[in-house]
Design brief:
heterodimer, A: mainly beta, 22-stranded antiparallel beta barrel, 63% strand, B: mainly alpha, 0% strand
Chain lengths: 432, 199
C-alpha cells in the first residue's frame, strides 16, 4: 500500500528530525499526547476497530519555529490503516509577517477542509491584509476504505495536484454608515492531473447596519466559480441578526452545482450519490426564555434539480438545573415527496464529581420511504468522561439501538473508549 | 458478542454506581468551587505540577505565611486576589501546553468563554468563518487538531455530530441534502456499511 510506505518513510524522517531538534539547546517547548481509541459494534464489522493516535507539537519562540506531527494507526478485522494527518515545519519571517509552512498540514479553503502535501506561504501586512500562496497535493481520500471496482473512476482516488493564490483585506467603510467591519477575499485555484480545472472564488464578511434602532446584521458569503462552464459551482451566504445578547435570527442560503470533473473529496461524494444541483434555504430563531432555559427553532427548504425536494424543521431546548446538570431536548422532522424522517431526542448531563461527567441520551425516530416502508428506531446511550489523573483521561460510550419495521432491521450495541495520555512537556519551564 | 456486551455494560454501570456513591473526598478549598462557577481549579490535580515547576500558591493567593488553621478564617484570608488569572493559567494550559488544553476541564460552562456567535448552533455555521480567518479559530482551538478530531474521525466515543440513532434513519437526508454529508464524509464512507447490508 503506497500510502503506508509513504507514511512510514515520513515517520522515520520525523524521528531523525526530532532527535536533531531536541539536541539543539534553544528555548523551546515540546508537548503532545497519546490517544487510544477503541470501538466495538455488534452489527457492523467496519465499526469494530482500534486506533492509536500520536500528537507531537514543538514550538520555539526564539526561532519562530513550529513543528507538528499528528498521525494514527488503526486496525479492524477487515483491514488496517495508517494516516499521517500532519507532519509539517513552520517558520515565521520578517517579524512574523511572513508565515511559511511545508510538509503535510491542514488547509482550509473554498475547496473545503483537507490536508495538503506541499507548501503554504502567507504574508500579513500591517493593515490586516493577507496574501496566501499554496501548492501541493490535497489528500483526504485515504482515510476510509476505498471500494475496488467501478469503471467510471469515481471510486478511485486520483492524483490531483493543486496550486492557488488567495488574498483578503479589510474594506475601508469609514465613509459608509450602513456597513462596518467588513472584508473581502478573492482567490483562484488550479487543479491538474488528467483533467485540468480552474476555479475562481470570492468571499465577503461584514456587518450591515440597517437603521439606528436595529442591531447589526452579520453577513458572510463565499462562492466558487467553475471556469470550465463559466458557472456558479457553489454559493453559501449567511445573515445573522443578534436581537440581544442571548437571541438571534438566522438566514442562510447555499447552492451547489457539481462540476463535470470532480476534484475534491466533496465533489466526489456528491457525484457518487446525487445528480444535478441543489439549493437549500434555512432560517431560524434561537433565544432565551429565562436565565436557565434556552430554545431554538429552524426551518429548511431543499430544492433539487434531480431527486427529492423537501422541507425540514427542528426544535431544540436546553435547560440548566441548579445542581449543575443540563437537560436537552430536540425534535427533528424532514419530509419530501411523500417520504419523511423525524425524531425525538432527550439528553441529561451531570458532573458526578470534579473528575467524572455523566451523560445520558435517548432517542425515538421514525422514517418512511416509498421503497422500504416505515422504520422505527429506539436508542439509548450512556457516556462517561473521567479525568483519571492530571495527564490521563478516559472517555467511554455505550449505545443500544433497536430498529423495527423493515426486513434488514437489527439490534445494535456499540461501545467506544478513548484513553488520552498527555505526554510530559519538555522545555516548558524555560518560558517562565 | 452478547456476552462481551453484557460484561462491558455491567462494568460501566458498576463504575457509575461506584463513582456516584463515593465521590472523591474534597479538601476544603475545593468545596468553594461554587463561589467561582465560571472557573474550576482542582487543587489536587495541580499539586504535583506546581511542585515540579516551582510555581507557588502565591501565584494566585497573595497572602503571607499565617498560623491560622480554622478553615473558614483561612478561606477568607486566602481568597484569590491576583485577578485576572488568565495569564497564570494559560502560561501552562495554552502557551506551553504542558497541561491539558481542553477548555472544558477548567471552564465548565464553555458559553462563558467562547465568542458570542458560538452560543447558537455554531458547529453548523462555522464554515465561512474558518475560511475567512482560520488563525482566529486557532487562538482558542490551539491548533487544527480540533478540526481533525471531528472531520477525520471514525469513532463515536468522544462526541457525535448527528443525534442518537441517526445512523438508522439517515437515508432521506442523504438523498435530499448530500452536500451537507460531503463536507465530512468520503464517498466510500457509505459503502463501509452498505456493502454489508445492502441498500
Amino acid at each position: 500500500m503506497p500510502s503506508y510506505h509513504y507514511s512510514s518513510a515520513c515517520l522515520r524522517v520525523v524521528l531523525l528530525f526530532a532527535a536533531v531538534v531536541v539536541a539543539k539547546p534553544v528555548y523551546a517547548a515540546w508537548s503532545g499526547s497519546l490517544e487510544t481509541r477503541f470501538q466495538s459494534d455488534s452489527y457492523f464489522d467496519s465499526g469494530n476497530h482500534v486506533e492509536q493516535w500520536l500528537n507531537l507539537d514543538y514550538r520555539s519562540r526564539d526561532d519562530s519555529l513550529t513543528w507538528g506531527l499528528l498521525g494514527n494507526y488503526g486496525a479492524s478485522r477487515l483491514e488496517s490503516w495508517m494516516n499521517l494527518h500532519r507532519l509539517y515545519l513552520g517558520k515565521d519571517f520578517f517579524d512574523n509577517k511572513l508565515q511559511a509552512k511545508a510538509g503535510r498540514f491542514e488547509h482550509i479553503g473554498t475547496a473545503g477542509y483537507s490536508t495538503l502535501d506541499g507548501l503554504d506561504l502567507r504574508w500579513r501586512d500591517a493593515k490586516g491584509g493577507q496574501w496566501e500562496w499554496f501548492a501541493g497535493k490535497p489528500r483526504r481520500t485515504e482515510l476510509y476504505f476505498i471500494p475496488d471496482g467501478g469503471n467510471d473512476g469515481m471510486d478511485k482516488p486520483e492524483s490531483k495536484y493543486m496550486t492557488g493564490v488567495r488574498m483578503s483585506c479589510p474594506l475601508d467603510t469609514a465613509h459608509l454608515d450602513w456597513l462596518d467591519n467588513s472584508s473581502i477575499g478573492l482567490g483562484m485555484r488550479y487543479h491538474w492531473s488528467g483533467v485540468d480545472t480552474w476555479k475562481l472564488d470570492g468571499s465577503f464578511s461584514g456587518n450591515w447596519l440597517p437603521v439606528a434602532d436595529l442591531p447589526p446584521v452579520e453577513l458572510s458569503a463565499a462562492m466558487v466559480l467553475d471556469t470550465d462552464g463559466i458557472g456558479l459551482e457553489s454559493f453559501d451566504a449567511q445573515a445573522r441578526m443578534r436581537l440581544d445578547g442571548y437571541s438571534q435570527l438566522l438566514l442562510r442560503g447555499r447552492r451547489y452545482d457539481p462540476p463535470e470533473a470532480p476534484v475534491t473529496f466533496a465533489d466526489r461524494y456528491y457525484g457518487y450519490y446525487a445528480r444535478g444541483s441543489q439549493t437549500v434555504v434555512e432560517g431560524g430563531y434561537q433565544g432565551r426564555y429565562s436565565q436557565t432555559l434556552t430554545w431554538g427553532a429552524n426551518l429548511r427548504a431543499i430544492a433539487r434539480e434531480e431527486g427529492v425536494d423537501g422541507a425540514g424543521a427542528d426544535l431544540t431546548l436546553n435547560w440548566k438545573l441548579p445542581n449543575g446538570a443540563t437537560v436537552e431536548g430536540r425534535m427533528e422532522w424532514l419530509a419530501g415527496d411523500g417520504e419523511h424522517a423525524g425524531g425525538l431526542l432527550a439528553g441529561y448531563r451531570r458532573p458526578l464529581n470534579s473528575r467524572l461527567l455523566l451523560e445520558l441520551n435517548a432517542a425515538a425516530r421514525n422514517e418512511y420511504s416509498r421503497l422500504d416502508g416505515s422504520r422505527t428506531v429506539i436508542a439509548g446511550e450512556v457516556r462517561l468522561d473521567w479525568m483519571w489523573s492530571r495527564d490521563l483521561r478516559l472517555r467511554s460510550m455505550l449505545e443500544l439501538a433497536r430498529s423495527s419495521g423493515r426486513w434488514e432491521d437489527y439490534n445494535q450495541v456499540r461501545f467506544g473508549l478513548r484513553l488520552v495520555y498527555q505526554l510530559p512537556a519538555r522545555g516548558a519551564e524555560d518560558y517562565r | 458478542m452478547k456476552h462481551i456486551s453484557s460484561v462491558i455494560l455491567l462494568s460501566l454501570l458498576s463504575l457509575m454506581v461506584v463513582a456516584g456513591d463515593a465521590p472523591e473526598e474534597k479538601r476544603w478549598w475545593e468545596k468553594r468551587v461554587d463561589q467561582r462557577p465560571a472557573l474550576y481549579f482542582p487543587h489536587n490535580a495541580h499539586d504535583q505540577a506546581m511542585e515540579e515547576s516551582g510555581v507557588l500558591c502565591l501565584a494566585c493567593h497573595p497572602f503571607g505565611k499565617i498560623d491560622e488553621t480554622d478553615p473558614e478564617a483561612v478561606g477568607e484570608m486566602s481568597a484569590v486576589a491576583n485577578e485576572p488569572l488568565e495569564a497564570i493559567c494559560h502560561s501552562c494550559h495554552v502557551e506551553d501546553r504542558s497541561a491539558p488544553t481542553e477548555c472544558r476541564l477548567c471552564h465548565p460552562d464553555p458559553k462563558k468563554i467562547w465568542p458570542r456567535d458560538h452560543d447558537l448552533d455554531y458547529v453548523r455555521l462555522h464554515g465561512p468563518d474558518a475560511l475567512e480567518d482560520e488563525r482566529a479559530c486557532s487562538s482558542c482551538h490551539l491548533d487544527l487538531n480540533y478540526c481533525v478530531d471531528c472531520h477525520f474521525r471514525r469513532d463515536a466515543a468522544s462526541h457525535r455530530e448527528h443525534g442518537l440513532g441517526y445512523r438508522l434513519s439517515h437515508g432521506l437526508e442523504a438523498r435530499m441534502d448530500p452536500q451537507k454529508c460531503s463536507s465530512c464524509h468520503n464517498p466510500s464512507y457509505c459503502f463501509d456499511c452498505h456493502r454489508e447490508i445492502g441498500p
